[in-house]
Design a protein that fits this description.
The protein is mainly beta and about 775 residues long. The protein has a 22-stranded antiparallel β-barrel. It has a 5-stranded mixed β-sheet with strand order 10-15-16-13-14, with no helix packed on it. A 3-stranded mixed β-sheet has the order 3-7-6. Strand 27 and strand 28 form a beta hairpin. The longest helix has 12 residues. The chain is globular.
């Protein structure tokens, strides 16, 4: 490439796509000149190699879904060349410069970099269109996970995410049995047949539908993406509140690597816990096939005693599992990923206490264990077609839950009674989509199908021989077609429009009274979920958006509140409409100060809720219509190259303005578990204290506002309204690190979630204390 048209380069730099957009590259090894030309064509950039000697050198090529910068780094390995970016899409490849040696004892701390306008952008891959975060017309939270942070916090699973993001909330019934909420879209505190309000994903793979959070371990995760809901257009049902997408590190077909993490922890007035995890990345065929394997195990120490039974630390929790991901490159032009995940959680007893008893103690006639067994298998195939990409994902989930409660006294007698519930859930999901258009004209179209079957069987009676009571079998099937596109309307204004058409069929039966297929209770629905948005960029440092979107959850069949062995009733579909206006000031990767804020209003009709009747038995009903409105914001200040201060907060108000007749009550009617406010402030630092030795850490303060357990006199129980401080640090020695973390620094005893045992709820004296002060010492290594 001797002759270069620099005018063409300048034009290309203005109209092309950004260097940080995740794209699919498929360039085989060859002469560097030919490889650079292919990279430019596939990446929508102009790449010049003016040195004929460099152009003739051998390049290893590149395959994978990476940014243009990362693709060039791979393609230039071993060539003695480097890439110089003149802007986002204009690149020149030159001989690698050798820096002159400098005699200097120790460099002074660098000044904050004055990065150019084309600094690498953060990409929202959960949008299914790889949209830069500053152009995404909606509220989104992206958390890049530092490997050191992952080694220290991955064992906490979703609990670690809720500590990072105030707008993400959770019940606190126990690990792998909680419900997740985003920005106050909370239906109830109890688990039942209703679909989740938050969709959870591992990459492109759906994790749940109408089950509690499986609480996957975060080890070897790259980042977390949270899209505020409803996300009905792109993700369908079970996304009223939004979606949480865990993005794991992909198998690397070029390099062998492994990481190890281990920790031991002690809880004040409790027991000793521990966690361990390892990752192995193994190339099978260099540049073509690799497998990445993660294994982990965790023991969370108990901290509640049962004096009458002579037991200490009764709420010990153990979990273990694995993730395995295979990647095959260039299989008839496709990149194929397939793998599996398992996560097994077992808790010996509940983690609630009773007011009036000594602190951190509770006596029950029988133990109340819980078990969650989760299995996932998936297959994803993707292929690049010029400026478009085809992605097809098929997955199957098996989710089994077993819960036992002490029901002693529910019938007025003092004899021990055990309640047992077994939920067996199978979820099949398939989605195929085609996306493209680059950064200026992103679009996506696709089809999706879901089949979910859940069987809930129950028994109640003496611990040695409980009798079967009413159980329910629900089958949900959905087929949908969806699409979304964005187009510039004016020079600085971009419009987005999209929609999803869904046909859903729900069939329900009582387990112990089957009926003829033609007489099965069913609900058929045809739904359209639209989205409309505007994104305005009047200047380099400021932008704003307007966003309107709808979502829904299909109805189903549940046991009636009487607990009769044969009685059941339907619960209807609910839907949610949200409008929001947001502003963005500054770039969080480029500027010392950046601000994100959004004002939102949600109208939620025919709200589905899993509830508890006065006898303690669960049932499901539509509680009425409500609204939620408030403010959600984040501020990031890079005080110095070593110190970053972040503040996040939300304020909201909720109102059940049209309750169903059985939930009419005097006074204020807020929605359950919707805290009026929440906030988190954190100071994070990182500094090289000696050659090859780095000290990093953070100190945080988190506040959870007041909320109510549920609607109606029985569940109008206060909870929340506490603040918790954490601190942690890591000392890195090249490939090794040692860390020390202290959670709940002030040993706060706030009531995190007031529900522990449904059969004692009528006494209104239950509380779930926060885990007392816990200290963890950890080690991690990479090879």
């Amino acid at each position: 490439m001797r002759n270069v048209n620099w005018a063409a380069l300048a034009a290309a730099s203005f109209f092309g796509v950004g260097i940080a957009h995740a794209q699919r590259f498929d360039v085989p090894p060859g002469r560097l000149g030919a490889v650079a030309a292919a990279l430019g064509e596939q990446g929508g950039a102009t790449i010049a190699v003016t040195d004929p000697d460099l152009a003739a050198r051998r390049s290893p090529g590149v395959r994978g879904n990476v940014s243009l910068r990362a693709a060039l780094d791979r393609a230039l390995r071993g060539t003695g060349a480097e890439a110089i970016f003149y802007d986002r899409n204009t690149v020149r490849i030159v001989r690698k410069r050798v820096p002159a040696k400098q005699v200097q004892r120790r460099p002074s701390p660098p000044a904050p970099p004055d990065l150019p306008d084309w600094a690498p952008e953060i990409v929202v891959t959960a949008s299914k269109q790889s949209i830069p975060i500053d152009s995404y017309p909606g509220s989104v939270k992206l958390v890049a996970l530092d490997p050191g942070w992952v080694a220290r916090n991955a064992a906490g699973g979703t609990a670690a995410i809720t500590k990072l993001l105030p707008s993400v909330g959770s019940t606190n019934l126990g690990s792998a049995r909680n419900k997740l909420f985003i920005r106050g879209i909370a239906d109830s505190s109890f688990n039942g047949p209703t679909q989740a309000t938050v969709g959870q994903y591992l990459g492109d793979v759906r994790l749940n539908y109408n089950a509690p959070d499986p609480n996957l371990n975060l080890y070897d995760m790259q980042r977390i993406e949270v899209l505020v809901g409803p996300q009905g257009t792109l993700y369908g049902a079970s996304s009223l509140g939004g979606i949480i997408r865990l993005v794991p590190n992909e198998p690397d077909t070029h390099a062998l690597s492994t990481t190890v993490s281990a920790g031991v922890s002690g809880t004040r007035l409790g027991g000793v816990g521990g966690d361990g995890a390892t990752m192995l990345n193994l190339p099978i065929a260099n540049g073509r096939v690799a497998v990445r394997f993660v294994a982990f195990a965790t023991r969370e120490a108990g901290y509640i005693d049962a004096p009458a039974r002579g037991r200490r630390n009764i709420n010990n929790t153990t979990s273990y599992g694995q993730r395995m991901a295979w990647r095959v490159e260039d299989l008839w032009g496709f990149t194929v990923d397939f793998g599996s995940a398992t996560h097994n959680t077992s808790t010996q007893d509940g983690q609630y206490t009773v007011r009036g008893d000594p602190p951190l103690t509770r006596d029950n006639a029988i133990a109340q264990p819980f078990r969650n067994t989760y299995y996932l298998a998936y297959l994803t195939a993707r292929r690049k077609f010029r400026r478009a990409e085809l992605v097809s994902t098929t997955s199957i989930v098996r989710h089994d839950l077993r819960t036992i409660f002490d029901a002693t006294g529910h019938d007025g007698s003092g004899a021990p009674v055990r309640y047992e519930e077994n939920n067996n859930i199978t979820l099949f999901n398939q989605e195929t989509r085609l996306s493209g258009g680059g950064a200026r004209y992103p679009w996506v179209v696709g089809i999706s199908s879901i089949y979910n079957i859940s069987a809930s069987s129950r028994s109640l009676g003496p611990p040695e021989a409980p009798a079967r009571i009413a159980g329910v079998l629900n089958q949900q099937a959905e087929a949908a077609i969806f699409g979304q596109l964005s187009r510039p309307l004016f020079r600085r204004l971009t419009g987005t429009i999209g929609g999803r058409v869904t046909f859903a069929r729900n069939v329900g039966n009582l387990l112990d009274s089957p009926v003829e297929k033609s007489k099965e209770p069913f609900i058929n629905e045809l739904r359209f979920s639209p989205t409309v948005a505007l994104d305005w960029h009047p200047s380099r440092n400021f932008s704003a958006f307007l966003h309107y979107q709808q979502g829904y959850r299909a109805g189903g069949l549940a046991v009636a509140p009487s607990g009769s062995a044969l009685e059941s009733r339907k619960f209807a579909t609910d839907d949610l409409i949200m409008s929001e206006f947001g502003i963005r000031l500054g770039n969080q990767e480029r500027d010392r100060l950046s601000v994100r804020a959004a004002f939102f209003y949600a109208d939620w009709n025919n709200i589905q809720a899993d509830l508890i009747d006065r006898s303690g038995l669960p049932y499901t009903a539509n509680i009425g219509s409500g609204r939620i409105y408030g403010l959600d914001g984040d501020i990031i200040w890079r005080a110095s190259p070593d110190l970053t201060i972040t503040a996040s907060a939300f304020l909201n108000n909720s109102d059940l303005y049209a309750p169903a007749p059985e939930f009419v009550a005097p006074g204020e009617r807020t929605l359950p578990n919707v805290a009026r406010n929440g906030a988190r402030a954190v100071a994070a630092w990182r500094r090289e204290i000696a050659s090859g030795i780095t000290l990093s850490g953070e100190a945080s303060l988190r506040h959870v506002g007041a909320s109510r357990l549920g609607v109606g006199p029985l569940l109008d129980i206060p909870q929340g309204n506490y603040s918790v401080g954490d601190i942690g640090s890591r000392l890195g020695f090249g490939r090794f690190g040692i860390s020390l973390d202290v959670t709940n620094l002030g040993d706060v005893r706030g009531n995190s979630f007031a529900f522990g045992n449904p059969f004692g709820l009528a006494q209104r004296n239950q509380m779930t204390p926060l885990r007392p002060r816990t200290i963890r010492l950890g080690l991690d290594a990479r090879f």
